[in-house]
Amino acid sequence: MARAADGAEAVALAAEHRPDVVIMDVQMPVMNGIEATRTIVAATPGTGVLVLTMGEDDGTVLAALRAGARGYLRKGAEQDEIVRAITTVHGGGVVFGASLAARIAEVLAPAERPERPFPELSERETEVLDLIATGRNNGQIAQELFLSPKTIRNNITSILSKLQATDRAEVIIRARDAGLGRDG
After folding, report:
1. What is the pLDDT at residue 160?
2. What distance, in Å, lies between the first and last C-alpha atoms of the chain?
3. Of 95, 91, 70, 92, nearest to 82 (Cα)?
4. Distance, CA of 145 to CA of 125 (rounded, Å)
5. Which long-range contacts (C-beta less than 8 Å, at least 24 apart) are formed by 73-82?
6. Where residue 107 falls among pLDDT bands split at 50, 70, 90?
7. Backbone angles phi and psi of 126, in degrees to 5
8. Strand partners, 23
9. Contacting residues for 149 by C-beta, under 8 A, at least 6 apart
10. SS3 163
11. DSSP 8-state assignment for residue 51
């Protein structure tokens, strides 16, 4: 076990001792922890780096991960959490503190699908309505969707009925107000 006073010394000690895990602070004199991590991982790829620091802002976390860190904890973490993190990094895994893990999960979660503006319409009817709102006529819509003109007429009749609209102009206005028809 070795202890470094600055980032440059951490790099030198890691090269000399070739540890399985380095616990790195981001805020270090001479060479910051991000640059030291990058240098250590490049020189000894088998060494896992666990960042243990006060900051938890997204930019610092991302920079540490890009530099090759396999773990990121706040200095206020419980001792058992730190021990588990060291064990995980030693085993080749990746670990984040609880609050950071929640933020990462939130960022990586699939984006919620925006609700369709007219849920009473089928997906096909919404697609036809979007094309109507772009100014296309029935023949152009039929050609674009590879459907018959009669199918498009039936879809339009259904759209008018479901939206309780009196004519094509009214559905165009409502569709554009709802954000449809903007790509054409």
Report:
1. 95
2. 65
3. 95
4. 11
5. 73/97, 73/100, 74/99, 74/100, 77/52, 82/52
6. low
7. -65, -40
8. 50
9. 138, 139, 142
10. coil
11. E
Supply φ then ψ for residue 72, to 5 degrees.
Answer: -150, 115
The C-alpha atoms of residue 140 and residue 4 are separated, in whole angstroms, by: 71
Residue 104 contacts residue 71 (beta carbons within 8 Å): no
Q: Which residues contact 115 (CB under 8 A, 6 or more apart)?
A: none
pLDDT, one tens digit per residue, over 159-176 is: 999 999 999 999 999 999
Rounded to an integer, what distance in angstroms lies between the CA atom of residue 149 and that of residue 55? 62
Rounded (10°) CA dihedral 133, 139, 140, 142? 90
Closest-CA residue to 24 (of 45, 44, 43, 9): 9
For residues 125 and 81, give the distance between their C-alpha atoms in angstroms, rounded to a whole number. Answer: 53
Cα-Cα-Cα-Cα torsion 134, 137, 143, 144, nearest 10 degrees, comes to 10
Residues 68, 38 contacting (CB under 8 angstroms) = yes
Beta carbons of 128 and 157 less than 8 angstroms apart: no
pLDDT the model gives residue 113: 52
3-state secondary structure of 155: helix
Contact criterion met (CB below 8 Å) for 48 and 71: yes
